[in-house]
Design a protein that fits this description.
The protein is of the alpha/beta class. It contains eight helices and 14 strands. The N and C termini lie far apart (107 Å).
């Protein structure tokens, strides 16, 4: 009987570990600065300031590392040293440095963003230490700053894959990089973001993020919802992938054609954040290896090139008001690696063109002022 009970609980633990999420993109922490040291009234001694807490962005770190090192989710800095006869000026408390992944946004309890750690070694003061005791506070050390902060991770990638489940995003990522995402023939295969790197012959590298598939209503946080869409914000290029023969989430949902899926993805991005539509974008029409796919693509190609042409025929519930302007529309087969080299070339070209367009034209008057000579001139 004892053996059976132990076996039951052992099996249950394995099941729980299996379903435990492996990707963490939000972590809430209670941070408290160190208490200031007491002063020495008799000799006018000043207590040391309490230690501070800093978040520092580091490559190679994840929020799961932060959670593992701070299991209680409470971080408190050491107090400052009390003033004494031996040391009238108390030592400052040691600061605590918490290494966090690059791409973190620090959010307070009111939902306001306090800072972005999107560059390696960028630092954010999470909590200040309390001042030491002195004549101004009756020589009583003050408590450090205490607050609850949320570390919200948004992946930083050159390009982000956007599409409905089973459109072939993971297969495409595997085809263009060395990433090994889980791939299967059913919806919702991708349950955590995957990052792949395109390696070019001249050693140029472009990062591509494969994120969980959208469903209709994602802008309202349905399905993966905001958990997916927030990662698109920091990508420089949107790559939309659609199935040439459309997609049906389940028997209870209406099947959408390829063209309708493009409109639906457009609408979800628009309703979440309209500025996403201003990013350069590429449309990949996938699964061209299937029978009849080429004929279907030629039939809808004119509408894909001019989305406004068939907008009136789009169902009202998925009809966008502002349309994406695709830089490229490419038919591919991620499964058979058809035209994948062409896609990687086009991704690089679009990113380079976007980078050139972002450069501001130099102002001749400003350049003249910057380069003018100062001081006396020799005649």
């Amino acid at each position: 009987m004892v053996f059976t009970t132990n076996l039951f609980f052992s099996s249950g633990n394995r099941i729980r570990r299996h379903f435990r999420p492996h990707f963490l993109d939000s972590l809430r922490l209670q941070v408290t600065g160190g208490h200031g040291g007491s002063g020495f009234p008799r000799y006018g001694g000043i207590g040391g300031q309490g230690g501070c807490i800093y978040f520092i962005a580091k490559e190679g770190y994840s929020l799961r590392n932060v959670k593992k090192l701070n299991t209680t989710k409470r971080i408190k800095a050491p107090p400052g040293e009390d003033s004494s006869k031996v040391r009238l000026l108390g030592r400052r408390g040691n600061d605590i440095q918490v290494h966090v992944p690059v791409g973190i946004t620090v959010i307070d309890e009111n939902g306001s963003a306090l800072g972005d750690l999107n560059v390696e070694n960028k630092t954010f003061k999470a909590a200040s230490g309390g001042p030491g005791g002195c004549s101004g506070n009756s020589f009583i050390g003050q408590p450090g700053q205490s607050r609850t902060l949320t570390l919200d991770l948004k992946l930083i990638a050159d390009a982000g894959l956007v599409g409905f489940p089973n459109a072939g995003k993971s297969t495409f990522l595997k085809a263009i990089s060395r990433a090994r995402p889980k791939i299967a023939s059913y919806p919702f295969t991708t349950i955590k973001p995957q990052l792949g790197i395109i390696q070019y012959t001249d050693h140029r590298q472009i990062s591509v993020a494969d994120l969980p598939g959208l469903i209709e209503g994602a802008h309202a946080n349905i399905g993966m919802g905001h958990k997916f869409l927030k990662h698109v914000e920091r990508t420089r290029l949107l790559i939309l992938i659609v199935d040439i023969f459309g997609f049906q989430l389940s028997q209870m949902h209406k099947k959408r054609s390829c063209l309708e899926n493009v409109y639906a993805l457009n609408r979800e991005l628009e309703l979440y954040d309209e500025t996403l539509l201003e990013k350069p974008s590429i449309l990949l029409v996938n699964k061209l290896d299937l029978q009849g796919a080429r004929e279907e693509f030629e039939k809808i190609k004119p509408s894909l090139n001019r989305l406004e042409k068939s907008l009136s025929d789009c169902p009202e519930e998925i009809r966008p008001t502002k349309l994406l302007d695709f830089e490229r529309i490419l038919p591919i087969s991620a499964q058979e690696n058809t035209d994948i080299d062409q896609v990687t070339t086009q991704i690089r070209e679009v990113l380079d063109l976007a980078a050139e367009a972002a450069l501001e034209e130099p102002n001749p008057e400003q350049l003249t002022l910057q380069n003018r000579e100062y001081g006396p001139k020799v005649v």
